[in-house]
Design brief:
Layout lengths: L1 E2 L10 H23 L5 H4 L6 H21 L2 E8 L3 E8 L13 H15 L4 E8 L3 E8 L2 H7 L11 H13 L11 E7 L9 H10 L4 E6 L5 E6 L2 E6 L5 H10 L3 E4 L2 H15 L1 E7 L1 H23 L4
Parallel strand pairs: 3-4, 3-6, 6-7, 7-10
Antiparallel strand pairs: 1-2, 2-11, 4-5, 8-9
C-alpha cells in the first residue's frame, strides 16, 4: 500500500500526545478528589468506579482519528488490470546451437511451439512482432494485433551460425519505438528473448540492454537447453559432434539491466510454462487505485461507536 499524500501521516504523531494528555488529566482528577475526600470515605463517595469503561470511548476515538488521518493521506492499493494496449517483440535465437535436441524436438522447435501458445494467450489488443537473430537480426513480422500473422511468420525461422544478441536487442527496440502512438502516447513495450548462449558477434548486448531499460522497455530472457546439449554437423567429408551447453549467465544480466526478468527452461514442458507465465504477466499491468473511502468509512463507524458507548455509559459524548 502507498499514499498519494504521505506527509499527512505526520498527523499520527499527535495521537500519542493526545493519550499522554488524557492520562495526565486522569491523574489530576484523582489527586483533586483525594485532596477533598479522606481515604476512609472514598468507597462511600464513589462506590461504583467505571474502571475500564471510563477509558474505552477515548481509545475508540483515538483509533478513529488514526484511521481518518490515514484516509486523509489518500491510501492507494496496487491492483492488476488487463492490458488494453501494448507491444511485444519476440526475439528468437536461430544460431546453429538451437538445433540441439536436448529439448524435444529441438531447442528451436520447442521455442516455436511455446511462442505460438503465448500468442494464443496474450490479449488480442496487444501487438506482437517477431524477430530472428543469428549473425544478424531479421524482422519477420512487425508488431501487430493480428496474432495469426505473427504465428505464421515462425515458418520463416532458419538456423545459421553466430549469435548477435546486442544487434537483436537494438533491432527489437527500433521496432517497438516505431509503433504508432495511441491517444498521444506510445504503448508500453517489452521484448521476450529466447536463446541458449552468449553473444559472440555485433553490438555489446549489455550496453543494448541498458539502452532498452532507459527507454522503459524491459527484456524478458528465456535460456533454453541443458548442459549436455550437442549438435552434429558436417566438416569436410566427415560428421562432427560438438557440445553446445546452455549458457544463461549473460541472458540473466540482460534481463536485470533492462528491468525485465530471466527464466530458464530445460525441457519443452518447462518452456511452455515459462511462456504461459509471461503471457499472464505481460497481459496485465498493475495500477494504483485509491481506497480512501474504505478508511474514511471505517473511521466514521469508529466515531459513532465511541459516541454510542459514551452516551450509554456516561450520558455524554465525551
Amino acid at each position: 500500500m502507498s499514499f498519494a499524500s504521505p506527509l499527512v501521516l505526520l498527523g499520527l504523531l499527535a495521537i500519542p500526545l493526545l493519550i499522554r494528555w488524557y492520562i495526565w488529566q486522569q491523574r489530576r482528577r484523582v489527586l483533586a478528589a483525594s485532596a477533598f475526600v479522606t481515604p476512609a470515605l472514598t468507597a462511600s463517595v464513589a462506590p461504583h468506579s467505571p474502571r475500564w469503561r471510563r477509558h474505552a470511548p477515548l481509545l475508540v476515538f483515538a483509533f478513529a482519528l488514526a484511521v481518518l488521518i490515514v484516509a486523509a493521506a489518500r491510501p492507494q492499493q496496487s491492483v492488476a488490470v488487463p492490458v488494453t494496449s501494448g507491444a511485444i517483440m519476440l526475439a528468437n535465437d536461430v544460431s546453429g546451437s538451437m538445433r540441439a535436441t536436448d529439448v524435444a524436438p529441438s531447442r528451436l522447435g520447442a521455442a516455436e511451439r511455446a511462442a505460438k501458445r503465448f500468442l494464443a494467450t496474450v490479449p488480442s489488443t496487444v501487438q506482437v512482432g517477431l524477430i530472428e537473430f543469428a549473425r544478424t537480426p531479421a524482422v519477420l513480422q512487425s508488431p501487430t494485433t493480428d496474432h495469426a500473422v505473427t504465428s505464421a511468420a515462425f515458418a520463416q525461422l532458419q538456423t545459421s551460425g553466430g549469435t548477435a544478441i546486442g544487434d537483436a536487442i537494438l533491432a527489437a527496440v527500433g521496432e517497438l519505438r516505431s509503433v504508432p502512438l495511441v491517444a498521444g502516447k506510445r504503448p508500453p513495450g517489452a521484448i521476450v528473448m529466447i536463446s541458449d548462449g552468449s553473444s559472440n558477434l555485433g553490438a555489446d548486448p549489455l550496453a543494448a540492454a541498458r539502452q532498452a531499460g532507459a527507454l522503459h522497455i524491459p527484456i524478458y530472457t528465456v535460456a533454453v537447453g541443458t548442459p549436455n546439449g550437442t549438435i552434429t554437423f558436417k566438416r569436410g567429408a566427415r560428421m562432427v559432434t560438438s557440445a553446445v551447453p546452455v549458457s544463461p549467465q549473460q541472458l540473466a544480466q540482460i534481463a536485470s539491466l533492462s528491468g525485465g526478468r530471466a527464466f530458464t527452461a530445460s525441457d519443452a514442458a518447462g518452456l511452455s510454462a515459462v511462456y504461459a507465465r509471461l503471457a499472464a504477466q505481460l497481459g496485465r499491468k498493475h495500477v494504483k487505485r485509491e481506497i480512501t473511502a474504505s478508511f474514511a468509512g471505517g473511521g466514521l463507524v469508529l466515531l459513532l461507536l465511541g459516541s454510542a458507548l459514551s452516551l450509554r455509559w456516561f450520558g455524554r459524548l465525551a
